[in-house]
Structure formats: C-alpha cells, structure tokens
Amino acid sequence: MDALAAKRKNVIASDQMIEGEYPIFVDRTSGAYFWDVDGNRYLDFFLSYGTVVLGHADRDVDDQVIAEIRKGFATGLSKPVQTELVSELLEVIPGAEMAMLMKTGSDATGAAVRLSRSFTGRDRVARFGYNGWHDWCAQWDHGIPRATRDLVHTFAYNDLDSLRALFERHPGEIACVVMMPFEVEPPAPGFLEGVRELTRAHGALLVLDEMRSGFRMALGGAQEYFGVTADLATFSKAFANGYAISALTGRAEVLRRLDRVHISSTFYANSDAMAAALATLRKLRSGPHLERIHTLGSRLQDGLRELTDKYAAPVEVVGHPPMPFLDFRLGSEEENQAAKRSFYTETIRAGVFFHPNHHWFVCAATTEEDIDTAIEAARGGFEALVRDGYTGAVRSGEAAR
C-alpha cells in the first residue's frame, strides 16, 4: 500500500487527501463507520462531505439501486423512477412547483444562475457562501476571466446593508441573489426575511443553495426550518445518501425557461442515483430520523462546549446540531493550523474522524454510544492543546480524566 500511496501523488491531479495521521485508503464502510485498508475502524463524522445522511451502505437504499442497475439504468431516456422522485420531491420542498434533476451541486446552482439571468434579462449576481466551482463562483481567481468575475458580487452574512448597497450600486442589473442559508453562523432574526424582501423589491430572484442544509435541517431544508421560501432552491449531498444526484426546484414560470436555456448532460437521465434518492427520501419520511440527528448533534455540541470551557480553549463550538464544527481562534492562521494538528492528531488516533477544515455531520446510524466516544476523543484533543501550550490549564484545577 505504501507503493500505491506514493504512486497516487504522481498520477492523481488535485489530490484532496488531508495532511496528518489520516487513513490513506478506505476499504469499506457500514453505518457510521469506515475501515481503512489496514483494518483500522473509524467513527465517521465527515460522512463523505455530508452526503451520507442515513448511514454508510444503507441496505434499503442500496437494494433499490442494485435493482435499478439490473433493469438497466443508462438509457438516456426517461424512466418511471424520475417522475416518481420529482413528484415526491415537490411534496416536501416549500415553493417547489417543478424540478430538474442533475448530477452535482455545482450543476444545479450554476443552472439556477443561468435561468435567473434568462428570466430577468439581467447579468449581475449577488452571492454569499460556497456555491461550487464554476466560473461565476469559484473561490480562486486563477483561470477565471475578469469579465466573468466583474459580474459577480459578494455580500456579508447577517448584514442586510451590504446587500442593499449592491442593489443601490447596480440598479436593475442584479438577476439573482444566490446564498447558503447559513455557513456556521445562524441567521439573525429577520435576516433571511430581509433578503427575501430586498430581492422582491428590486426584481431579482432569490436562490437558496441548500447543498448542506437540504434533507438535514428539515425534510424541506432550510426553507422549511426557517420559514423563508425562495424562488429557486438547489439540493444535492444528503439527497441520495451518497449517490451522485442534484436537483433544481422552484417556481414553474422560472423553470419553464429551460425550453430556451441550454442545460444538458449525458448522465442526467441515469436512473441509478434517482432510485437512491427516492429510497432515501422515503426512508427519511418514514420515521423521526432527522429529529434524532438533531438530538445527537445537540448532545455532541453540548459535550464539546463543556470541554472548551473546562480546558479554557480558544475554540468555539459552531454550526447547527446536524452539522457541528470547531472554530479555532488563536489569532494567526499559522497558530490555528498548528493547534488543529495537535487536536486532530489525537482524535484520529482515538478512531474518530473529525474533518479539520469542513463541517462535521451526524447521520441516522450514529448512536448515543458513538456520541460518547466522540466526546472522549475530543477530550484527548483538548488535552493535547494544553500539553502543546495552545491553552491554559484546566479550569478550577480540575484534573483531566
């Protein structure tokens, strides 16, 4: 395996492996766990960037996928599962009158922007958060024409004045506001409602990027959870418990513009992932899976807050219960990264996979005992911060267990 790992660096472009003592190759998965090729088991709070909501290798989902594969899933033509899935999707997503199924989150959000520009006859876009890798929203400028970058403007979260200023600076030019409902900071009272009002007042569409929030915050995503309905909303990640599919949903009059806007892919009609999404959606609707995820996530956050207080750690527990995270606040980015290495080296040695640079996630297969295990692993991480001088002593002279 060492030779294969060395070869990987020379043959795979943009290798996204995390630095540190992390598994080089994953062998198999089940429930809330994965095993590396050396047989080590890890409790997984990364869950494939949050795509796994029910648990790895969920039998109910995989059985439907296998059945669809055996019938033939790559026809390039419509199959019944497509209409079944979209019909069920429209039942749970607020404001969804029509939908288009695609493959990735970037596909869906990019399509939403193109449709918004066609529908409004405008070119500019206001955005917040991570919205994918396409030219209009890529995090890095390299390879992106300036003419493209100049049409996209960012605004600050929980700051209506920053968005209002964009509308005032570019009157009648902004086609849509594309935004994640939140990243780690919750919306201030009235913020999302204020964004909704501003878009209506200025004739722009509101597009909610629900990649992380969809089918996690609530069955109907952040729109259901926060009570704000967008013109268009995009989904992927937890939609199919790990299988590659996304959806663009929203107002029919906007989506009907697809008859004059070119959005296409060879693989959009593949029905294997549609079967996975339908099975996932039906299972989520069948029981209190999301409520349980919220409960377990809250327990994890509460346990982490107790530890940050006990160890006087310059770390804040952030995010919503289904997707918690630790924000290291030591000052410089160099100090933060060094402290993260100390913390996450201990947690991965304890067999718990917390991603150091991405939201964590809880799935329906996670148990109360798993949360206890995770909190104990985090305790070791905080003790490492004390040991390595990134925080003071344990408060009240309490000895670490």
UniProtKB/TrEMBL annotation:
Keywords: Aminotransferase, Pyridoxal phosphate, Transferase. GO terms for molecular function: pyridoxal phosphate binding; transaminase activity. InterPro entries: Aminotrans_3, PyrdxlP-dep_Trfase, PyrdxlP-dep_Trfase_major, PyrdxlP-dep_Trfase_small. SUPFAM superfamilies: PLP-dependent transferases. Pfam families: Aminotran_3 (PF00202). Its cofactor is pyridoxal 5'-phosphate. Belongs to the class-III pyridoxal-phosphate-dependent aminotransferase family. This is Aminotransferase class III-fold pyridoxal phosphate-dependent enzyme. It comes from Streptomyces platensis.
